[in-house]
Amino acid sequence: MSPLFDQHGRPLEYLRLAVTDRCNLRCFYCMPEEGIRYTPRHDLLSYEEMLRLTGLLATLGVRKVRLTGGEPFVRRNLVYFMERLAQLPGIEDLSLTTNGVLTAPHVPALARMGVKAVNLSLDTLDRARFASITRRDELPRVMQTLYALLEAGIQVKINAVVMDGQNIADLIPLADLSRTLPVDVRFIEEMPFNGGSHAAGPASLPWNHVRIRRHLAGHFGELTPLAGSVGATATDYAIAGHQGRVGIIAAYSRTFCGSCNRLRLTAEGGIKTCLYDQGVLDVRALLRGGHDDEQLVAALAAAFRFRAANGFEAEQQRPLHQLSFESMATIGG
């Protein structure tokens, strides 16, 4: 089949696949303390449905799959599913985003199946602040996962959301991990997808990508920009004397939209062609409605032909712009 392009000429090559909306942490920037209303299990896509859709997308040019959640390892038999994903023709890059709490015992299996990279969510190295941000005292288990991944030779990218008044004191210690460890430490602008946990918007984003870079440079000296790959969301920098790198993701400022090559599949079967859109296709209804592969491909192609040019356009097209009532766990990151 011919590769899929959107109407702006961008190829769709990268699938972010949410296997669950459930999570074992309660990070306040993602959801309220009591959690969110989870999708009933029978409404979640089955592994077989995910495999069928991913296989179809691979014939249309998708080469990279990243599993997200919620927390992927909350779902049972995840490793078995990943092994089957890794065997799909056309899938060249299988990776994972995790909070690390349940991950360490599965690291050998990830290495055996050829997982190339793991994004590890880690907003602070301070145990008390970790417990405050996530509402769970699990930092030791996350650090165990970090070192297990490095020992297994799996590339680690640490994702830290930058939150005013919460973890600013942690930016330098987190970045300093790249001094002695071969890790990428990436700082992410806070976004409004918090499930109604608190108000978020332009007025609550004093730490944008410009200020984050200035803060890091003020401590480490010059940050040397590095060439990025097509579709990359992070702007990466080298610091003299560091093994690893630091990166900044302008997730709210949305400076990288022009080269976006990704789409998202939510755990309940919604296709999103932008993090900020309301969803463009209910693929679960098609899968369970008896549609054949040709009909599925036609529906996917139609959805991509009307893709927003960037995150701002996608946000404007949402009804009532109720972004703050959606959780990152629901949309899959």
Structure, explained:
It catalyses: GTP + AH2 + S-adenosyl-L-methionine = (8S)-3',8-cyclo-7,8-dihydroguanosine 5'-triphosphate + 5'-deoxyadenosine + L-methionine + A + H(+). GO terms for molecular function: 4 iron, 4 sulfur cluster binding; cyclic pyranopterin monophosphate synthase activity; GTP 3',8'-cyclase activity; GTP binding; metal ion binding. This protein is α/β, with parallel strands linked by helices and 333 residues long. It has one domain: Aldolase class I (TIM Barrel). 30% of the residues lie in helices and 17% in strands. The chain has eleven helices and twelve strands. A twelve-stranded mixed beta sheet has the order 7-8-9-6-5-4-3-2-1-10-11-12. The longest helix is centred in the N-terminal third of the chain and has 13 residues. About 2% of the residues have low confidence.
Short description:
The chain is 30% helix and 17% strand. The chain contains eleven helices and twelve strands.
List keywords for this structure.
333 residues; alpha/beta; TIM Barrel; twelve-stranded mixed β-sheet; 11 helices; 17% strand; globular
What is the molecular shape? globular
Which range does the strand content fall in?
15-25%
* Secondary-structure element order, N to C: EHEHEHEHHEHEHEEEEEEHHHH
Q: Provide the number of structural domains.
A: 1
What are the low-pLDDT stretches, counting only 5+ consecutive residues below 50? 199-203
The largest pleated sheet is described as: 12 strands, mixed
Distance between the termini: 28 Å
Q: Which homologous superfamily in CATH is the superfamily?
A: Aldolase class I
Q: Give the number of helices.
A: 11
CATH fold assignment: TIM Barrel
Structural class: alpha/beta
- What is the arithmetic mean of pLDDT? 90
Report the strand count: 12
Q: Using only CA atoms, what is the Rg?
A: 19 Å
Q: So what's the CATH class?
A: Alpha Beta
Give the proportion of residues in helices.
Answer: 25-40%
Q: Give the spatial strand order of the biggest sheet.
A: 7-8-9-6-5-4-3-2-1-10-11-12
CATH architecture: Alpha-Beta Barrel
EC number: 4.1.99.22
Protein name: GTP 3',8-cyclase
GO molecular function: 4 iron, 4 sulfur cluster binding; cyclic pyranopterin monophosphate synthase activity; GTP 3',8'-cyclase activity; GTP binding; metal ion binding
Domain Radical SAM core: 7-233
